[in-house]
Amino acid sequence: MLKITGARVVVTCPGRNFVTLKIETAGGLHGLGDATLNGRELAVASYLTDHVIPNLIGRDAHRIEDIWQFLYRGAYWRRGPVTMSAIAAVDVALWDIKAKAAGMPLYQLLGGASRTGVMVYGHANGETVEQAVEQALRYREMGYKAIRLQAGVPGLPSTYGVSKDKLFYEPADAALPTENVWSTAKYLPTAPRLFEAAREALGWDVHLLHDAHHRLTPIEAARLGRDLEPYRPFWLEDATPAENQAAFRQIRAHTTTPLAVGEVFNTVWDAKQLIEEQLIDYIRTTIVHGGGISHLRRIAHLAELNNVKTGFHGATDLSPVCMGAALHFDLWVPNFGIQEYMRHTPETDAVFPHAYRFEAGELHPGEAAGHGVDIDEALAAKYPYRPAQLPVNRLEDGTLFNW
């Protein structure tokens, strides 16, 4: 038995807010789990402190599956982003401890490497198509083999995915939500022009991706997917809201553009129909919002049976702790597709020293025991929590819409 003797939540804001769970054991080992839920960080921190941690003390840290089931089934009110992010933090911290106790990197404990590195994609964006392509060329020079393209939409004051800082993107920009304006009619002609220009500049040896961010109806998404087909996109992400999983049947019937969805999913049930009917090509559920490594393994295995690959969300609002865990998972999982990689600020990297590294368009988790990410609590304390919420979106007539 490896007894859990203590656990605490660390909230820090080295450029943006992160919530980290630290679990300590009688043997002196500790493990870290990411519990960050963008714009609702303190809700998860409270869930952990007030409801989860009291139930952890005295338990055997090695009994990961039993603790997962206790936190999921024992809560009675299951699922949801707050609950599943809290469970994920515990789960990842326990896997970190178990791998440290075994003296091996986490990917070895999961079953060993299935590949030599993890292909990642970066975010190229600009106010105009020309600026976005310029940034894409910069990413290619940095060694990226895959690049997400986002450009401003003519006639709209701001557009999702277009940021001032081209390496770091934090949409949660104010204590109260900023309001953006959206027009699908103005957007739909822009994306194909962006891909046409990118292919002309970059050629065909780099993968190109695009995110619609849940803003299209199924038939609009089908139209966009068909318009993008000549430029061979790696995927069209979050084409339409996925609460109605069957909506993806309509998209699938009209385009061969690969589809990716799931960054807002919390359990396998959110993706069950999409995977079983092969309505998507990539599942993007994150370790932190999807209940941790233990639950993501279930999703990945179901996906493998149905020719669906992983393509985990990896934006700046997921801490290096989540990235480290995801990379170990990516290196092992047989049906890996790609990993999103939005770089953290130097301040964040200093708070979370890590073993993973980028080289030639790929990330490797490193060979440190555990998931290879730690936290400098003294430095973290110098960056207090700062209230920040995600924007909201309205149509040009004022109707509240999907952000």
Rounded to the nearest angstrom, the radius of gyration is: 20 Å
Structural class: alpha/beta
Number of helices: 14
The assigned CATH architecture of the largest domain is Alpha-Beta Barrel
Average pLDDT across residues? 97
- Total number of β-strand segments? 16
CATH topology of the largest domain: TIM Barrel
Uncertain segments are none
The CATH homologous superfamily of the largest domain is named Enolase-like C-terminal domain
Which sheet architecture does the biggest sheet show? Answer: 10 strands, mixed
3D shape: globular
Please report the distance between the alpha carbons of the first and last residues. Answer: 47 Å
Secondary structure: helix percent: 25-40%
Architecture overview:
With 403 residues, the protein is an alpha/beta fold. It folds into 2 domains: 4-106, Enolase-like, N-terminal domain (Enolase-like, domain 1, 2-Layer Sandwich); 110-368, TIM Barrel (Alpha-Beta Barrel), CATH 3.20.20.120. The chain has 14 helices and 16 strands. It has helices at residues 41-56, 64-73, 81-102, 106-110, 129-141, 184-187, 190-202, 218-228, 247-254, 272-276, 292-305, 320-332, 346-351, 377-380; strands at residues 4-12, 18-25, 30-34, 118-126, 146-151, 179-182, 207-211, 235-237, 259-261, 282-283, 309-310, 339-340, 357-359, 362-364, 392-395, 400-401. The strands form 3 sheets. Strands 4, 5, 7, 8, 9, 10, 11, 12, 13 and 14 form a 10-stranded mixed β-sheet that branches. β15 (392-395) and β16 (400-401) form a beta hairpin. The longest helix is centred in the first third of the chain and has 22 residues, at 81-102. The mean pLDDT is 97.
